Amino acid sequence: MESGGRIVSCGNRTTHIAEEMIAEFWNRMAILSDDDCWLWKWGVSGAGYGQMRINGTMWFSHRLAYALVNGPIPAGLLVCHQCDAHYAPGDTTYRRCSNPRHLFLGTKKDNAVDCVNKGRKALGEFHRSAKLNWVLVRQIRAMPHLGNRQIIDLAKELGIAANSLRDVLHYKTWKEEPLPLTTRVSA
Q1: Residue 6 and residue 131: Cα distance in Å, rounded?
Q2: What is the rounded distance in angstroms from the CA atom of residue 71 to the CA atom of residue 9?
Q3: In degrees, to the nearest 5, what angle opens at C-alpha 130 toward C-alphas 125 and 135?
């Protein structure tokens, strides 16, 4: 093993990073204070995450920052952002944040739940391709028993699949009416 530097593990990937490369890594961020987002100033992925090539392998800046400060990232875990709630919906600037204080480990499910809880994922009638809304869902559910032919006809009229309409009727989808936007609590 080379002298100086650190061994860094992110999931199934482990590498030795020289001290000079670590210093270069931190210098590629706009660090204003301990509490602010440390935004990556160099290359970003197509999804907007900071990235840097180290020893021939591309690393996401937030994952590397987390591992350098907190230790190994177990395989199967993501490095999630706490700071995403401070940005406007649709603003993905937070993906460039590499401040270890703003990062936490979580599963894909944890990340998805966090995203929904912070209002960053459009669900139900707020989704860009929604064909139903809560008013319509309540009206559908209030209808007397619908036979198969009626379900097919109504689904066609609404522009949705008959199985989607059945899922609404059986509470498999559109399970819980969301709070109005004005009463949602920010994380």
Answers
A1: 52
A2: 7
A3: 45
Contacts of 81 (CB under 8 A, 6+ apart): 62, 94, 95, 97, 102, 103
The domain limits of the chain are 6-117, 124-183
In percent, how much of the chain has pLDDT > 70? 90
Residue closest to 89 by CA, chosen among 54, 46, 138, 122 = 122
Rounded alpha-carbon distances, angstroms, from residue 52 to 10, 71, 138: 14, 19, 50
Q: How far is CA 172 from the centre of its chain?
A: 24
Question: Which candidate, 94, 112, 104, 89, places its Cα nearest to that of 48?
Answer: 94
| Greatest mean pLDDT range, 11-20, 97-106, 115-124, 131-140 | 97-106
C-alpha closest to that of 73 among 106, 118, 27: 106
Task: Name 16's bridge partners.
Answer: 7
CATH number of 6-117: 3.90.75
Which residues touch 112 (CB under 8 Å, ≥6 apart)? 121
Contacts of 3 (CB under 8 A, 6+ apart): none
Highest mean pLDDT among 141-145, 164-168, 182-186: 164-168
What pLDDT, in 10s, does the model give residues 89-99? 778 999 999 99
